[in-house]
Amino acid sequence: MLDTQSEEIETPGPEVGSPETVRDMTPGTVGSYLSTMKGRAVAGLATVTAATSALVPRVAAADMIEVNFTPIIQIVEGFIGVIPSLVNLIISMVPAILVLALVGFILMFLDKILQLIGSLVNLGR
Predict the structure, then answer these.
(1) Residue 43 near residue 50 (C-beta atoms within 8 A)
(2) Do residues 36 and 25 touch, judged by C-beta distance below 8 A?
(3) What is the DSSP letter of 7?
(4) CA separation (Å) from 107 to 12, 93, 98, 110?
(5) What is the structure's pLDDT at 102?
(6) Reduced to 3 DSSP states, what percent helix, strand and coil does the chain have, rounded to the nearest 5?
(7) What is the rounded distance in angstroms from the CA atom of residue 95 to the CA atom of residue 101?
(8) Closest by alpha carbon to 21, among 5, 34, 8, 9?
(9) What is the pLDDT along the chain (125 residues), one digit of tens a residue?
């Protein structure tokens, strides 16, 4: 036979730190929540500091390793060689852009004047 009694199913509540949890807190629990979050932040900062300080001896020993910077220097010199031509291109384009902007402004201004005149003529009819 089937059991006719219904069982209540518990739905999980909001996760800790979710907006619903923070919004529903009473003023006394907000302080404890903030102190918990502060503790987690301090623990994370301590972990990052420890990991960074563990790398210091390895970086200090890097002076014994010889690094070949020749390819990097060649790339930088090539990029620096291109910059003057880019500057000349931009400088030569500025007057053309200004002329096009001025022509566009004048055409839009005249178009608005003609639309105004057209709407005034239509009102007179």
Answers:
(1) no
(2) no
(3) P
(4) 65, 21, 14, 5
(5) 97
(6) 80, 0, 20
(7) 10
(8) 34
(9) 455 555 555 555 555 555 555 555 555 566 677 777 778 888 888 887 877 777 666 655 555 667 788 888 888 888 888 888 888 888 899 999 999 999 999 999 999 999 999 888 887 66
| DSSP-assigned states of every residue in 50-66 | HHHHHHHHHHHGGGGS-
Side chain identity at residue 38, one-letter code: K
- The C-alpha torsion from 35 through 41 and 44 to 46, rounded to 10°, is -80
Structure tokens given for 39:
């503790």
Tell me which amino acid residue 48 is. Answer: V
One-letter amino acid for residue 21 of the chain: T
Contact status, residue 24 vs residue 30, Cβ threshold 8 Å: no
3-state secondary structure of 47: helix
- Ramachandran category for residue 17: left, alpha or beta (phi over 0 → left; psi -120 to 50 → alpha): left
User: In angstroms, rounded to a whole number, what is the distance separating the alpha carbons of residues 83 and 73?
Assistant: 16
